[in-house]
């Protein structure tokens, strides 16, 4: 179960009231000035709005960059959704060791985007898959 703090709950309330989409999770990244919302399956389009109007409105209200990720019951699909616009060649979950690890195969040209400046994107992936699937680590190959 995901435990949300007061700030996350407030941001979710604002997000849902503006977009009409249902948020399952909210990740505040203070260092990078962004908030990531995980929305129910099928709610990403509604959350973004035509031409990105709803997301722009949320961004203006909260004063931070906004990201929307569509949830999936399938861990590999969820990881793929987090990685967008990068399209991974393959994602597999290895639980043969004591820790469960997601191994993501990406083209060399997309690795920098997937990892992000100072590892900000890989940190987001690690946090979200740990919270939603109890996956302990991410390995990009």
Q: What's the shape?
A: globular
What is the count of helical runs?
Answer: 6
- The CATH class of the largest domain turns out to be Alpha Beta
Q: What is the fold-level CATH name, i.e. the topology of the largest domain? A: GMP Synthetase, Chain A, domain 3
Total count of strands: 6
Question: Strand order of the main beta sheet, please?
Answer: 1-2-3
Biggest sheet, in brief? 3 strands, mixed
Structural class: alpha/beta
The span between the termini is 30 Å
* CATH architectural category of the largest domain: 2-Layer Sandwich
Order of helices and strands: HEEHHEHEEHHE
Low-confidence stretches: none
**Overall domain count:** 2
Rg over C-alpha atoms, rounded to the nearest angstrom: 15 Å
| Residue share in helix | 40-55%
Mean pLDDT: 93
List strands and helices in order, with pairings:
Elements: H1 6-19, E1 23-29, E2 34-39, H2 44-48, H3 53-62, E3 65-70, H4 75-83, E4 90-94, E5 101-105, H5 108-115, H6 120-133, E6 137-140
Parallel strand pairs: 2-3, 5-6
Antiparallel strand pairs: 1-2, 4-5
How does this model look, in words?
The structure is a single chain. By secondary structure, the chain is α/β, with parallel strands linked by helices. It folds into two domains: 6-70, GMP Synthetase, Chain A, domain 3, CATH 3.30.300.20; 75-140, K homology (KH) domain (GMP Synthetase, Chain A, domain 3, 2-Layer Sandwich), CATH 3.30.300.20. Helix content is 43%, strand content 23%. The protein is built from six helices and six strands; from the N terminus they run αββααβαββααβ. The chain has helices at 6-19, 44-48, 53-62, 75-83, 108-115, 120-133, and strands spanning 23-29, 34-39, 65-70, 90-94, 101-105, 137-140. The protein has a three-stranded mixed sheet with strand order 1-2-3, sandwiched between helices. It has a three-stranded mixed sheet with strand order 4-5-6, with helices on one face. A hairpin with a 6-residue loop joins strand 4 and strand 5 (101-105). The protein is globular. The mean pLDDT is 93.
